[in-house]
Amino acid sequence: MPIALRPTHAMQRTKRQDPAWRQRVFCALASTAALWPLLVLTEFKPWLLWEPGALKPALRFIADFVPPKVDGEFLALVARETWRTVAIATAGLTLALLLAIPLALLSVRVLSVSGLTGRMAPIPAVVRQLVRWLMIGLRSVPELIWALVFVRVVGLGPTAGVLAIALTFAGMLGKVYAEILESDDTHPATSLLRNGSGRLQTFLYALLPQSASELTSYTLYRWECAIRSSAVLGFVGAGGLGQMMDASMKMFNGSEVATMLLVFMGLVWVADRISAGLRKWLE
To answer: Which among 49, 59, 170, 228 is most buried, taking Cβ atoms within 10 Å?
Structure first.
């Protein structure tokens, strides 16, 4: 009968040792060395939060959050502004879709008839590149900057928030839509184009059935992001819950701010549940 050999201490230590530990340690040290100049450049000093001159006012302001304000008249006002926040996000995303879908279809190479032979014709190639540059320009400007511009143009109110979300999100949606459509199997689309189908027919019958679930999932995610953005835009006068929260913070009314924060967290949770439910239904 063969005798089982007991593993020695050296063998156990070798077995437990991570063979890639040197590379992991090197990557950690290299990342730290690369990050340190960035922290110095941004003057990142978190220990300043614990200084008495900064800590006491912060704790005093947080203490004012308890208890949240639950006055009936105030809650009715919060409910109205919450609904306005959702309306701003939904209207802005709807306008963004109206811009993003044509931009995405124009920038997708697989829908180009001239690209079937290999290299695209000069005019379609230039149009495609111009559309891509337009989407880069739209998403390069944050919605907060667009809101500041539109507040000057159309005045204070939800209109500025809707337009700001529409332009920024149009660039984001158009770019991601195009990438999703180009990442799927392009053989059905190519076959339809070669047999005389139009671009719109090719999109509806070849690309869309493959990508519908992913496109819908991303659109719902951007709707949730639009709700958060609409609250932030309120701080520059674009209306909604954010504008009301800005007024309460300027008055150092912590109880009102606490109520609006709780409502906003609930609003984001509801949006997340709706998105998850729709994604599950589509699957």
So the answer is: 170
CA nearest to 239, candidates 69, 97, 80: 80
List b or e across 8-46, with b for residues whose CB sees 16 or more CB atoms inside 10 angstroms. eeeeeeeeeeeeeeeeeeeeeeeeeeeeeeeeeeeeeee
* Confidence (pTM): 0.76
The values of phi and psi at residue 118, to 5°, are 125, -95
Question: Could you tell me the CATH number of the domain that includes residue 78?
Answer: 1.10.3720.10
Query: pLDDT tens digits, residue range 127-148?
Result: 888 988 999 998 888 888 888 8
- Burial category of 210 from C-beta neighbours within 10 Å (exposed 0-12, middle 13-18, buried 19 and up): middle
Cα-Cα-Cα-Cα torsion 180, 185, 190, 193, nearest 10 degrees, comes to: -50
Distance CA 218, CA 73 (A): 37
**Residue 47: per-residue pLDDT:** 75
Name the token pair of 241. Answer: 């819950």
Domain residue limits at 213: 72-282
13 in any annotated domain = no
- The domain total for the chain is 1
